[in-house]
Structure of Gluconokinase:
Amino acid sequence: MSRGEALTDEDRAGWLEALRDHETAQPPAGESPHLVMTCSALKRHYRDVLREGGAHAGDLRIRFVFLDAPEEVLTRRAAARKGHYAGANLVHSQFVALERPGPDEKDVVTVDVDRPIEDTVRDVIVSVKGTMMQDDGAYLRLN
């Protein structure tokens, strides 16, 4: 990626499997039994690999937050980053690979990120808390 080359499905396979395995290997820490991981699960297949961790772990529920913005917005933001290994030239390849979550993917919350970061963060927190409350009354403390 630092050379401006997008990752392939084969490049991502081992990484996604490691994340899936990490989901079930992590004991609850502190007061919350919740684990938050971030990755760009651009394709449904990638999200399905991560879902496998929950399917094999009993009561582990996997949820996704899809941060949605137009390609131009993300290209502009990537170009403004300093010292990041992935340049703005990779944004287009990610949009080519992107499979937006389908209406049947009930475990995905979509949040518009083409606005101030404070609004985005607030909506992500509200969405995550709402999803967790909906699941089983669990509550995640995010300050």
Q: What stands out?
A: Residues 117-136 form the longest helix (20 residues). Helices lie at 9-25, 44-55, 71-80, 91-97, 117-136. The beta strands are 64-68, 108-112.
